[in-house]
Write a structure and sequence with these properties.
Elements lengths: L1 H27 L1 H4 L2 H32 L5 E3 L10 E3 L1 H38 L5 H17 L1 H15 L8 E3 L4 E7 L3 E5 L5 E5 L7 E2 L5 E10 L4 H15 L14 E8 L3 E10 L4 H19 L8 E3 L16 E3 L1
Antiparallel strand pairs: 1-2, 3-4, 3-7, 4-5, 5-6, 8-10, 9-10, 11-12
Helix pairs in contact: 3-4, 7-8
């Protein structure tokens, strides 16, 4: 019994040694290394090279996007004006450039890394002899289900990438997004936060933004419409409007936010009571609101100084029989036509 057991153990050890010897010989053979290991090494090398190339392309793309940043024009400080009240705000442009490049670049690099490494791992598993067909089929079914359930989310992210890449808006800009308008407080890849004049913070999904009106890029204009009496001299009133506006542009609160001379456009509208004259003033971005308020205030003071009054609308007085009687006091009732 003991002899049989010893013989069996000796046989097992001999088979194990033979198997180990055969495995070592297989590992030492060139045919083994030209098979699956070589293909796995080639997959890894090609994946690393492709990953490096994609990151290089992304870096070039983000640099190109950053160079397209809209420069901001602001009022220069009194000590550095040298006859020019305006300057390009390079600090703000650089900050926006860095923000845009960082955001877009991080998203593109993450997506590229996930795709490349996922494909590499799947190919390596296939080279090791595992059947990955059921896994790929299951992943396809899950992907289709997610694509139907997350359409709006994908739409929001893609729209956010293009909004940031094209510099449509940025933090501190005054924008009109249709349903919401105000100052941008945060820009994300899924939502944009806008605070309106009343202090309400709007969270707008990027996929729902169909148009962007940005009042803070490049420059802006203040539009001044001045109604004058119908029988007034248009040329005289136009000269007064330009003169009063030119004087108002030198006042504090206006002077540092405008450039050039006021532009008189002419008659905008005509009614039976008045003629409306239109004038434009070029301002710094997002300064057209404050400039417009102060400019209208100064024009009102100039009109009062010259005794100019806005035209009244036509009024009619309706009297009843009792009110038309001489023995009773007549109280007219005004109504606007």
């Amino acid at each position: 019994m003991s002899i049989s057991l010893i013989s069996l153990m000796t046989l097992s050890l001999g088979e194990g040694a033979q198997n180990a010897s055969d495995f070592l010989l297989h590992l030492a053979s060139i045919d083994f290394w030209l098979g699956a290991p070589l293909r796995i090494i080639m997959i890894v090398l090609i994946g690393l090279i492709l990953h490096a190339m994609v990151r290089l392309v992304i870096r070039k793309v983000t640099s190109s996007i950053a160079r397209g940043t809209q420069s901001r024009v602001v009022a220069a400080s009194p000590k550095k004006r040298q006859g020019n009240r305006w300057k390009t705000d390079t600090a703000l442009s650089s900050a926006r450039q860095s923000q845009r490049a960082k955001t877009v670049g991080s998203v593109l690099r993450s997506v590229a890394s996930i795709v490349i490494w996922t494909v590499m791992i799947v190919m390596i598993i296939a080279e090791l002899g595992f059947n990955i067909a059921p896994v790929i089929a299951s992943a396809g079914v899950v992907g289709v289900a997610l694509s139907f359930g997350a359409q709006s989310l994908v739409k929001d992210f893609l729209s956010g990438i293009f909004i940031v890449a094209e510099d449509q808006l940025g933090i501190g800009d005054w924008v009109d997004l249709g349903e919401a308008s105000g100052e941008v407080e945060a820009v994300g890849l899924r939502t944009t936060q806008v605070r309106d004049l009343e202090g309400t913070l709007w969270h707008v999904r990027n996929g729902e933004i169909l148009r962007v009106g940005n009042s803070s890029q490049g420059w802006a204009r203040t539009v001044v419409d001045l109604p004058i009496p119908y029988d007034a001299d248009i040329d005289e009133m136009a000269d007064f409007l330009v003169e009063a506006t030119s004087e108002a542009l030198q006042k504090p609160g206006i002077k540092g936010n405008v450039t050039g001379k006021p532009e008189y456009l002419g008659v905008q509208t005509i009614t039976g009571e008045s003629v409306t004259l239109r004038l434009l003033v070029k301002t710094a971005p997002a300064a057209q609101f404050s400039v417009g308020r102060k400019l209208r205030e100064e024009l009102k003071k100039a009109m009062d100084a010259r005794g100019i009054r806005m035209p009244h609308t036509n009024q009619s007085v309706v009297l009843t029989e009792e009110q038309s009687s001489p023995s009773k006091k007549t109280v007219p009732a005004d109504s606007q036509q």
